[in-house]
Amino acid sequence: MQQVSSTADYTELKKKACEGLGFIVHFSASWCEPCKVVNEFFENEAATYKGKVLFAEVNCEVHEEICELEGITSVPFIAFFRTADGQQERVADVVGAKLDLLTMNTISLYGENGGKGVQRSDFAELDDYLKYLTTRKGIVAFITGTPSRPRCGFTGKLCEMLLEEGAQFVFYDVMVDNEVCERLKVYSKWPTYPQVYVDGELIGGWDVCRELKEEGELKASLKL
Prior knowledge:
Blueprint: E1 2-3, H1 7-17, E2 22-28, H2 33-48, E3 53-59, H3 64-70, E4 77-84, E5 87-95, H4 99-110, H5 126-134, E6 139-143, H6 153-164, E7 169-173, H7 178-187, E8 195-198, E9 201-204, H8 206-214, H9 218-221
Parallel strand pairs: 1-3, 2-3, 6-7
Antiparallel strand pairs: 2-4, 4-5, 6-8, 8-9
């Protein structure tokens, strides 16, 4: 994990990440014990995602201008960036040493197996890729945006509810690929997002999950 030495250094790292790499930044402080937990976690992740994701640490005691630039007001704070069509965007945030959320965002945004897992390019047909995505083991949420930066209210409510239930899940941001976004609605025979799958079975969207919770059946449906 790279230690940011200056504002210029931070700018250069962000530019480097635009060359097809993911970018995760840990905003920390020397007095913060939870920050040490995050650093240890990311040291392991940096080795796993070598060549796929850049990991950097910004000491907020030293680099107040960077923290002000990114709107950071507490530590530990972890920001996730993604580049699409040459444009870099901060797409997810985690506040605190919440290792489960760090894992969820890293896998969901940058892929499994250190970013070397299954890709869309591995499939000749789009429907075969959708079959892979929807039949993954566990809970998979197809959403607009990310849990911490949703693109619609229903996505935000759904993710909040899943996390409140203690669900461990991965997410797929359908806004990243318009073909996937449009075709999945046909493939799943479900015309809207979000969509929640559990062990390959479509549970439904926000309304269905809300009703299941009200009826006391959500945990069972999620196999928690």
